[in-house]
Design a protein that fits this description.
Elements (H helix, E strand, L loop, with lengths): L5 E4 L8 H8 L1 E6 L4 E6 L2 E6 L2 E8 L5 H7 L2 E6 L5 H9 L7 H4 L4 E3 L4 E3 L4 E12 L9 H6 L7 E13 L1
Antiparallel strand pairs: 1-10, 2-3, 2-6, 4-5, 5-10, 6-9, 7-8, 9-10
Length: 171
């Protein structure tokens, strides 16, 4: 199934509050192909301009099953939903794709995007091409309190910086 009922827009036309998008609305990071994929709920990340490109920054902990899908694919999508899909995002944040097919369990439909896959039910899909990967390191934290608060077991996130190649919004 291809994404239907969507309008292609430039990343520069995203006119939403990105702090609200990430912190309050959350997103599903999705990678893989229509037959083998995984998603995870995320609320840490950002958008900006880097290397003269519109980019997204996402962070994935090493124990997350989605990490291998993002690592193995050149592209991934960030999927944003209406509030009525909050239970689906909660399920995708609390269950592991190692144990269940989260997309099916959440009632979400995989659709083909130009270079990757996305969720048909998303109100906005941002398709991303990986540009840079790094791991957060304890020695690079200037505020060591962040480690105590967010990384007591030292399971530091992996950072992905990705070029925003396509943005689709509901028609």
């Amino acid at each position: 199934m291809e994404l239907k009922f969507y309008n292609f827009i430039s990343p520069y036309e995203i006119n939403e509050n990105t702090f609200d998008l990430l912190d309050n609305q959350w997103m599903l990071i999705l990678a893989g192909n229509k037959d083998k994929h995984n998603c995870m709920t995320a609320s840490w990340g950002g958008f900006g301009i880097l290397w003269n490109k519109p980019v997204a920054f996402v962070f994935i902990r090493p124990q997350r099953y989605t990490l291998k899908f993002v690592e193995q694919n050149d592209f991934f999508t960030l999927n944003f939903f209406e509030e009525k899909w909050r239970p689906a995002l909660e399920l995708c944040g609390n269950k592991s794709g190692r144990d269940i097919d989260k997309s099916t369990a959440a009632g979400l439909t995989i659709a083909e995007a130009p270079k990757s896959i996305a969720f048909q039910e998303a109100r906005m899909v941002i398709e991303c091409r990986k540009l840079y990967i790094d791991e957060l390191k304890a020695e690079n934290f200037l505020d060591k309190g962040i480690i105590k608060t967010h990384y007591p077991t030292h399971d530091f996130h992996k950072l992905f910086i990705a070029e925003i190649t396509s943005v689709y919004k509901e028609a």
